[in-house]
Design goal:
The structure is a single chain. With 207 residues, the protein is of the alpha/beta class. It has one domain (2-206): Aldolase class I (TIM Barrel), CATH 3.20.20. The protein is built from 7 helices and 10 strands. The chain has helices at residues 11-19, 38-45, 63-73, 86-89, 143-146, 162-169, 188-206; strands spanning 2-6, 24-28, 53-58, 77-80, 96-101, 118-122, 150-153, 173-176, 181-182, 185-186. The strands form 2 sheets. Strands 1-2-3-4-5-6-7-8 form an 8-stranded parallel barrel, surrounded by 4 helices. It has a two-stranded antiparallel ribbon with strand order 9-10. Helix 1 (11-19) links the parallel strand 1 and strand 2. Helix 2 packs parallel to helix 3 (63-73) and helix 6 (162-169) packs across helix 7 (188-206). The protein is globular and about 40 Å long. It starts with a strand and ends with a helix.
């Protein structure tokens, strides 16, 4: 099971997450309490392994701004977390994660409108588009709609419920931000526990 730790803002957290087994790190360039400047993100990313997925998170941003930040920060995956159209979402040279807010089973029908490499299923938006620590109803996930798609499960995941989420959704990857924080800051112990829990599901499936 692949794991993405989102909302990275310092090199210590980034390296600790990688050491614990993270496959992807997320850097938020949209309005958020976890927002990071492209230049600061670039300083961190410059010290990370080349094959790691370094994801830039954007919300309803212009193509020009996204491409400029890609160049400055050195991210290698774009995450679109707003109301971007299918046409806009497939207009980049880098792989794109299209995030969809899932409040009902009907929301999953949007999966067929897009042709991106990855789809991130998140809970409905709160104050921010993501990172709100709330899960959506995993029972509405339809296997037929998800078939053949690289699904990233997000929204309200934490070390205590990630195993349950993986069982319910059988995702390609799980994504966490607030669920591995203590008092609004990334907690290295929680990050390790989250990754261990997620990776242990892979071992159970092999048995």
């Amino acid at each position: 099971m692949k794991v993405k730790i989102c909302g990275i803002r310092d090199i210590k957290t980034a390296l600790s997450a990688i050491e614990s087994g993270a496959d992807a790190l997320g850097f938020v360039f949209a309005q958020s309490k976890r927002r990071i400047d492209p230049e600061e993100a670039g300083k961190i990313i410059h010290q990370l392994p080349e094959d790691l997925l370094k994801v830039g998170v954007f919300v309803n941003e212009t193509k020009e701004t996204i491409e400029k930040i890609v160049e400055i920060a050195g991210i290698n995956v774009i995450q679109l977390h707003g109301d971007e159209t299918p046409e806009f979402s497939c207009g980049f040279s880098l792989p794109v994660i299209k995030a969809l807010s899932v409040g009902s089973a009907e929301d999953l029908s949007k999966l067929d409108e897009y042709s991106n490499e990855y789809f991130l299923l998140d809970s409905p938006k709160g104050k921010y588009r993501g990172g709100n620590g709330v899960s959506f109803d995993w029972s509405i996930l339809n296997e037929n709609l998800l078939l053949g798609k690289k699904i990233i499960l997000a929204g309200g995941l934490n070390p205590e419920n990630v195993a349950e989420g993986i069982k319910a959704a059988s995702p390609y990857m799980v994504d966490v931000s607030s669920g591995v924080e203590t008092e609004g800051k990334k907690d290295l112990g929680k990050i390790k526990r989250f990754i261990d829990e997620a990776k242990s599901m892979e071992k159970e499936e092999v048995k």
